[in-house]
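To: structure desk
From: M.T.
Subject: fold request, one chain
Message: Could you run this one when you get a chance? Sequence is below, nothing fancy, just the single chain.
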Amino acid sequence: MVLVYSDEKNLLLELIHLGKDLAKDEHKKVTAVIIGPDHHSKDYIMHGADVVVVVDCAIHPFKAEEYTDILAEVIKENKSEIVLIGSNKNGKELAPRLAAFFDTGCITDGTKVYMKDKKLTVERIVYSGNAVSVEQFTSKPEIVTIPSKVVDPLPKDENHKGDIIKKTIPVKPSPSKIVSVHQMKSESVNVEAAEIIVSCGRGLKNKQDIHLISELADVLKGRTVGCSRPIAADLKWLSEDHWIGLSGHKVKPKLYIAAGISGQIQHIAGMRDSGVVVAINKDPDALIFKSADYGIVGDLYEILPKLTTAIKAKME
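Reply: Done. Structure tokens follow.
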């Protein structure tokens, strides 16, 4: 049995697809778990889940101790051998606790998960993107965290049948308490969902020059501006909502334009799955060109206005 869990709907849909691929090789079923209100169980069935377990839970907000106990009980009842957890903030706290509970291993941020010689095999990026580690388990359940955008959800199939099981699992309250929760300030930018992204890097000389990036994003009707680490983390010209890279957001747009970005591996790790990549850099030896489908060698201050004007004329 393959069990998948995430408190983010889109990420769980992706995990179901990955779980189906693994279950197919082993002739097993995929069980998706919902903890709390049942808003999407039918959607999960139509996107490939064979079973959806809905656990009635009044614990809010998320508490890792109680959620670990709940998931552990579901794993034991279903005799799940493979457990895929969404690698978001809560998932990263939950997965190692589950591994400790079962005295088993936990592989984090798997970018490829597959069966090899009947063994679950996981590939993950290590050393800031300079190498790929290939890992296997020696005990069960095998627990892996999966970041977003590793796979796309399966197409919706209204004829796909599955079971929805509702359960109540009594949980002993943990002694820890959440004193307060402060919402992080956000600019309502979701680069992870964007289909077109125009990103900037240290090739920009001044903060006010970001308007060149925004104008191009606007004419492309993408309206999504991204950036490399220095722009968000060091200079603070843009918020971390825009940060694309190994420590920022991982994106998978149809079109990714990188202007003034050198192409360090940390940034490439965040956008390597983009459909079409266009790089603009005055350095012909910039690393970004190795990851680009199209490259323009030149000064972004000359190229961006001309590119914006040309696209605008074509779109009219």
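Reply (cont.): The helical segments are 9-26, 41-46, 64-78, 89-102, 210-219, 229-234, 265-271, 300-315. Let me know if you need anything else for the meeting.
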